[in-house]
Amino acid sequence: MSLKKFKRSATTKYQLVVPVFILFLFALGGCQAQTPQVVKIGLVAPFEGQDREIGYDGIYAARLAVREFNAEQLAENKPLRVALVALDDSGNVDIAAGNAQALAADPSIIAIVGMGNEPTRLATAENLTNSSISFLHVGVSPFKATSPDQLPDDFKSRYETVTPFDEVAGDQAGSVYDAFKLIFAGIDQLDQENRPVTAKNLAEISKSVTIQGIAGDTLQWDQ
User: Fold this and answer.
1) In the 3-class helix/strand/coil scheme, how is 148-179 assigned residue by residue?
2) Burial 191-223 (b: 16+ CB within 10 A, else e)
3) Predicted confidence band at 33 (pLDDT cuts at 50, 70, 90)?
4) More confident residue, 25 or 199
5) Angle at which helices 52-75 and 10-17 pack, to 10 degrees?
6) Angle at Cα 126 formed by Cα 188 and Cα 145, nearest 5°?
7) pLDDT, position 25
8) Which of 52, 95, 113, 189 is deepest in the core (most CB within 10 A)?
């Protein structure tokens, strides 16, 4: 099969890029004097089914945000690294609930970013009620969809560098990127306060964290 024909096969493309469970761990670096602490951020989204385009738009933005954060940590010789854990819910409420329970059981998960429809959002939020994990859902305030026309060219170029099939940023890319950047701003705040990076500590300081979104808006973590 030619490369051209291969690119036309959406099903093959998605099956190769994202299995049901994905763990991305970027830029851990080589030999270092101090073993990095690894914390995880979950991304729950539809990677299969009719809304899978939404999920893939988001996972590339998440991948970019994590890669850039880890590169900055490495450049500044800081010992923290972030891993991205992506779970497919296929737009299904029961799967979304199970994903939330699985992530909540992992003590290294410090936050979760959600994508998709309202029923899966509610199912995820309900199953995180008894945990200290912050849940940021894209598609609702403050992470509303952003037209690609409003995204900076530099962001769109960086986004394309992490896609394996020449994908371009869609309506969800900027919002997902912003959600991760807000989490990273919380991590930076904890670092400044000399506090451990945990889900509980991140939730406690979240309301004091603001960033400038990719489209220029000021965004605040409002749980």
Assistant:
1) HHHCCHHHHHHHHHCCCCCCCCCCCHHHHHHH
2) eeeeeebbbebbbebbeebebebbbeeebebee
3) low
4) 199
5) 40
6) 60
7) 46
8) 113
Helix (H) or strand (E) holding 41: strand 37-45
Tell me which residue has tokens 């799967």.
Answer: 95
Q: What is the DSSP string of 92-118?
A: -HHHHHHHHHHHHT-TTEEEEEE-S-H
C-alpha span between 26 and 36 (Å, rounded): 12
Q: Tell me the three state secondary structure of residue 50.
A: coil
Tokens of 162: 């992490």
For residue 177, which amino acid is it?
Y
Mapping DSSP to helix (H, G, I), strand (E, B) and coil, where does residue 72 land? Answer: helix
Contact 36, 79 (CB under 8 A): yes
Q: What is the pTM of this model?
A: 0.84
Region 59-74: what's the mean pLDDT? 96
* Separation of alpha carbons 206 and 187, rounded Å: 9
Count other C-beta atoms under 10 Å from residue 9's C-beta: 12
Contacts of 212 (CB under 8 A, 6+ apart): 218, 219
Q: What is the mean pLDDT of residues 64-73?
A: 97
Helix (H) / strand (E) element for 60: namely helix 52-75
| Spatial CA neighbour of 182 closest among 128, 143, 146, 132 | 143
List, in order of start, the domains of the chain with CATH numbers.
Answer: 12-220 (3.40.50.2300)
